TrEMBL record:
Lineage top rank: taxon: Bacteria
Signal sequence interval, chain numbering: none
Entry protein name: PadR family transcriptional regulator
Source organism per UniProt: Plantactinospora solaniradicis
Ranges of residues in domain Transcription regulator PadR N-terminal: 24-85
Length: 115
């Protein structure tokens, strides 16, 4: 697993994912895009690199029967990813959160299942 290059976009995504990790929730890509006000290609590119590095895991939403909408992919930091996120964010001092959780899209939208 190669260590991805750390960019401002990656720091933003890591900060949001770390907050979700601490709140024991998972977030989906669209919520990340809207909260960070970053484009889909940027966010999903970062998520791909984080997943390739083993810092996050993704899981597909299970929809109830007759639910007619696309499934969401939820992301959560791994234990190693949470440690790396803390290190990277500390090294990037001063870090100010660059994201806002949009009204109605709180991080509590999808509790992380117990493992």
């Amino acid at each position: 697993m190669a260590t991805p290059q750390i960019s401002n976009a990656m720091l933003d995504v890591l900060a949001l994912l770390l907050r979700a990790w601490e709140e024991k929730t998972e977030v989906h890509g669209w919520l990340i895009m809207k909260s960070l006000r970053r484009s889909g290609p940027v966010v999903y590119g970062v998520l791909d690199r984080l997943e390739d590095a083993g810092w996050i895991t993704g899981s597909w939403e299970v929809l109830p029967a007759r639910q007619d909408r696309p499934r969401r992919r939820f992301y959560t930091l791994t234990a190693a990813g949470a440690e790396v996120a803390r290190q990277q964010l500390t090294a990037a001092v001063p870090v100010r959160p660059r994201f806002r959780i949009q009204p109605g899209f709180g991080l509590i939208a999808h509790p992380r299942p117990a493992r």
